[in-house]
Specification:
2 domains; three-stranded antiparallel β-sheet; DNA condensation; Integration host factor; DNA-binding; IHF-like_DNA-bd_dom_sf
Length: 95
């Protein structure tokens, strides 16, 4: 498990320093990126940034489960999830 983390504020500051843009501009771009990503994936469109990552909506069928507190059998409704896959450049950077 990673012992370091980079929160949004630190990410915005790092991208601003790397790109020479203001933190407000970078923050606005990130907001637009996440908004577009959420809308696209929510509509079932796979979003791919070649070499870096792919994000897509997945469907989960209805299934039987158990309430962990009581052990009672329950029915879990069908629904959607999100799958995020790392691309080759991201995988190479992790080595």
């Amino acid at each position: 498990m990673a012992d370091k983390s980079l929160n949004r504020t630190e990410l915005v500051a790092a991208v601003a320093a790397e790109s020479g843009q203001s933190q407000a501009a970078v923050n606005g771009v990130l907001d637009a990126l996440f908004s577009t990503l959420a809308t696209s994936v929510g509509e079932g469109t796979k979003v791919t940034i070649p070499g870096w990552l792919a994000v897509e909506r997945t469907h989960r069928e209805a299934r039987a489960g158990r309430n962990p507190s009581t052990g009672e059998a329950i029915q879990i409704a069908a629904g959607y999830g999100v799958k995020v896959s790392a691309g080759s450049k991201l995988k190479a950077a992790a080595k």
